[in-house]
Amino acid sequence: MYDLIVVGGGPAGLSAACAAWDSGLRKILIVERDQELGGILNQCIHNGFGLHYFQEELTGPEYAGRFIELLGQTGVEVRLDAMVLEITPLREVHMVSRNEGYRIERAKSIVLAMGCRERTRGAIGIPGARPAGVYTAGAAQRYVNMEGWMPGRRVVILGSGDIGLIMARRMTLEGARVLACVEVMPYSGGLNRNIVQCLHDYHIPLYLSHTVTDIRGDRRVEQVVVSQVDERRNPIPGTEMIFDCDTLLLSVGLIPENELTRQAGIEMDRRTNGAVVYENMETSLPGVFACGNVCHVHDLVDFVTAESQRAGAAAARYVLDREGSPGEPLLHVKNGDGVTYTVPQRIRPGRVEKLCQLFFRVNRVCGNSEIVVSSGDTQIASFKREHLAPGEMEQIALPQVLLARAGGELTVSVREVEDT
């Protein structure tokens, strides 16, 4: 039996395993379905990683390499090219691989770190023909950066998530012509730095409140039709623009990879599409933890690392100390006005040492604002922000002394403040 099995060998899984080893666990297994560790970072050859955690600018493979080196200094066992098929409530992990066949391994604790996947054309229902040349932005990124294949030469990008913005620059640097980036919302879904560095610096137009309403072509994409949308995101007749292109890249959202989580009977949050977690990233199934993009979609890998280290250390405490009791006080965290979701969704004040990190996203662009945390009708904390945007995840730290005084539930809201 293992002390800990980590499902996924990307940045979340690597960080969790290293933290669990540092916290005293010695029999740890990472199961990764790819042929090498690193996850999505291996295809992210652009820089911008590690500014928070390492205080220096790294590429994705460099960031992953740092943690792979740290893992090499431990005795953590790794199984590559191995697919986890099922996780049971008894913490049995069913897996299959070419080298070892079908195996069932038992663990005292489990960390779920499967990451996320891209939303596809079928998920958003783009009308039109079904020719070749329609890719998710992440698939195109892998083709260009890892496989050495060029998806197309005249490109339109639907969606302004970070992967789409980065691929606008990448395709341009490889010699393609990126005709437009099209976003259905009135604001971009990506980081502001990526809008500037990937679109503005290369004079690529960004059409907000627009979407693709038709795909034309026989064997290959020949044209896409882009239309303006109203406040309900319905296309406005007469606003059509036709782009002659051979490729359409989709950057229309990420979905946490949670089939295994649901199969295990773990409580899910419809807001994040991830597991409901406590302050230490433990799920509703005792001894099973979730972290990284499988829990909620992050914008910076540095935040994934910090969150996953918390999950790995908590898994170690679960195995070594079996902390907590069934009757301990519990706070339910809810999203109020202007907030889409919160993570964690539940806090046990007795297990918070000094501060509890709370992550959330807003549902609109806000200027000078105040983040308000309340318990019932009582405001217990507030935090000022000059700017808030849905594409940028926010975090606040709540002191344990405030949590201990709160009763029953917490609500996180955003209130815009008038400039004086």
How would you describe the overall organization of this protein?
Strands 1, 2, 5, 6, 7, 8 and 21 form a seven-stranded mixed beta sheet that branches. The protein has a five-stranded parallel beta sheet with strand order 10-17-11-12-13. A five-stranded mixed beta sheet has the order 24-22-29-26-27, with no helix packed on it. The chain has three domains: 1-118 and 254-323, FAD/NAD(P)-binding domain, CATH 3.50.50.60; 120-252, 3-Layer(bba) Sandwich (FAD/NAD(P)-binding domain), CATH 3.50.50.60; 328-420, Immunoglobulin-like (Sandwich). It is built from nine helices and 29 strands. β19 (268-269) and β20 (274-275) form a beta hairpin. Helices cover 22% and strands 35% of the residues. α1 runs parallel beside α8 (301-320) and α5 runs parallel beside α6 (192-199). It has helices at 11-22, 60-72, 121-124, 137-147, 162-173, 192-199, 259-263, 301-320, 400-405; strands spanning 2-7, 28-31, 47-49, 58-59, 77-79, 82-87, 92-97, 101-112, 116-118, 134-136, 154-158, 177-183, 206-208, 210-217, 221-228, 241-244, 247-250, 254-256, 268-269, 274-275, 288-290, 331-335, 339-343, 346-347, 355-362, 369-375, 378-385, 394-399, 409-416. It is of the alpha/beta class and 420 residues long.
Short description, anyone?
This protein has helices spanning 11-22, 60-72, 121-124, 137-147, 162-173, 192-199, 259-263, 301-320, 400-405; strands at residues 2-7, 28-31, 47-49, 58-59, 77-79, 82-87, 92-97, 101-112, 116-118, 134-136, 154-158, 177-183, 206-208, 210-217, 221-228, 241-244, 247-250, 254-256, 268-269, 274-275, 288-290, 331-335, 339-343, 346-347, 355-362, 369-375, 378-385, 394-399, 409-416. It has 420 residues and is of the alpha/beta class.
